[in-house]
Amino acid sequence: MATFISVPLKKSSEVDLVKPLSKFVTSTYPPGEEQTEYLRAVEELNKLRKSALGRPLDKHESSLEILLRYYDQLCAIEPKFPFPELCLTFTWKDAFDKGSLFGGSVKLGDGAFAHIKDTVLSALNREPTMDISPETVGTLSQIMLSQAQEVFVLKATADKMKDAIVAKLANQAADYYGDAFKQCQYKENLPKEVLPVLAAKHCMMQATAELRQSALANQKKKFGEEIARLQHATELVKTAASRYDEYVNVKDLSDKINRALTAAKKDNDFIYHDRVPEVKDLEPIGKASLVKATAVQTPLSQKFSDLFEKMVPMAVQQSVSAANSRKADTVNRLIGSMREATNLCNGVLASLNLPAALEDLSGEAVPQSILEKSRAVVQQGGLQSIEQLIKDLPELLQRNREILDESFKMLDDEEATDNELRAKFNQRWNRTPSGDLYKPLRAEGNNFRNVLDKAVQADQVVKERYTAHCEMIALLCKPENELSAAIPSANPAKTLQASEVVNVLRAQLAQLDEVKREREVLEGEVKSVTVDMTTKFLTALAQDGAINEEALTASELETRYGSHTQRVQQNLRRQEELLSQIQVSHQEFSALKQSNSEANNREEVLKKLASAHDSYIEISSNTKEGTKFYNDLTEILLKFQNKCSDIVFARKTERDELLKELQQSIAREPSAPSFNVPSYQSNTPAPAPGGPTPAPRTAKPQPPARPPPPNITPQVASTSAPISTPVPPGSTNPPPVAPPTGPSQAQGPPYPTYQGYPG
């Protein structure tokens, strides 16, 4: 009786895991011990796959252990690698296919990792092979359930358990086999021996149940019922023996039933004379199920050890990335507000000609602050250094545009080819359209294009600022004697050195310098704060199964940067108060000075020189920032280009394989004038109702034609998160405003506000 149906192992083609996984590791983790460990783990994973799938396995526990370890490792790394983006194609052959015309696809790029998560059909980008179609998988599950129940029947029989228990177990097994038989009746892809074995097992389990129930009838003195059940059991085993003897052996069971029937008839004929009822009038035998389909719980192997144990899941990696972006926004906001305040301060002082006005009471010599500004500009390379940097920016921009354009061209060319083949082969070209698959990449590429457009705007601001101040910057680069000659002289009518307002202004400027130095210290402290959310995110994922990244990050950032934010706000308020006081004092100072055209001209030039120094520092910083931005973006775009190249190569490989399969399929068909589905496959015949009906061996009816495969819409690869492009806070660009020539309210920076390069 113990003839069990086994499912053959699916065979796979060789897959190189090392290259794509190593590329992800090297691009995600910096060089060091951690990266080395993960690269070594990638090599071990590749070896494990070859051991599990690259060679025939013996029917031994050790072989099962290899498969379990590989499965456990796949489950462990599935959430840690972005497999849809790695363009890995796992090719699996149909376990039941024998190369027949109606056998379905012989091979298929099966989304193995999604399959482990029980989402095979939603992950496949093509029609599934018949062995993993929903109907086939459901049937195989029912067969395994039936055989598991039979094992309990055999165990109960061997342990000599009560007849009532064995009868219920066997009757339940017969029901399970009957259900499996119904589901298999129209499955052409299953091996030919499956259907007769299931029919035979159904008969044999039912006969076993009747045999055991007849013993119970004998114990209850129901001798007519005993004979009726044994006669029914005899008919069942005769059916199994006459039709399915080449698949199962029923001799032992048949002999046991015949002996019991002979003895029962003899006793009833000579002693009891009990009436033998019809089978339909017999009380139904009870049922007892001891089996059920259970969810797979990992790890399956007791010896499993995760090769990537220290690697955090992708959900944590993505949350950490988002948290780092929020941290960068917070840091940029704090530093941006402080730098904006410094620019405002410098602009106000330049418009008031401070502190140069206090140093220029003689009206002849070059003020000391102007000389210091001149030396600072010369030490940083003068006008020539920023001219070269500005000249280099368009070339760097063009290089990045070319990389991005080439990446889009690769996607466009492959998508056009895919569309042509889809139009040619219609429904036979059953893979995910390239247009759907490339949506995440195109969104990422368009994001890069927007980043470049914003960078162009920043370049333009830098150029305009340079044009506005290049003349005065050039003057600052000249020797002291030439600088002095270029500044108009003015002899004041009276000396202001001992004036009280001069002392007040100097004290206020000293306090303002202290406020600026405090900001420099604050900026260093803000930059030095470290925020690592990995542990918190791992804990949240383990406890809740999800990560509320925004709430967790906001709470942590408030804890780390709350005090810094308060100190920055206090500093900005203190500067605002001082600037207001300096403005009032400057008005008093200006009223004491003799107003004449020479003095006004001299003060105007000194204001422009001070403003030119501040602009030079800003332009130099902006051009260096722009150069670094373009160079960093080049590396990112090269990775994006490689990602596009990899997926296009994988699609081309898949395209060539699908074309080959289509050619082979067409070649096997007797004639194929078109690719339309034949009319005889348009409707699905319903299976006959009722229980399993054993078919005669010599006249097996032809099953109806298999209906066309269902149209399964594959899921598009998970979209990778777009790169954020935070822009430092700033207002819209106002037109340049010339400082006043006489005493007036202080002005802000006399140049457009610089938006900055995208992050």
Automatic annotation (TrEMBL):
Polar residues composition bias: residue spans: 673-683
UniProt GO BP: mitotic cytokinesis
Residue ranges of every copy of the BRO1 domain listed in the record: 3-349
Cited PROSITE patterns: BRO1 (PS51180)
Alphabetical UniProt keywords: Coiled coil
Pro residues bias: start-end ranges: 686-712, 725-742
Annotated region described as Disordered, given as residue ranges: 669-759
One cellular component (GO) term of this entry: endosome
Coiled coil (UniProt feature): 505-532
Biased composition (Low complexity): 743-759
GTP-binding is among the record's keywords: no
UniProt protein name: Programmed cell death 6 interacting protein
Native organism: Cyprinus carpio
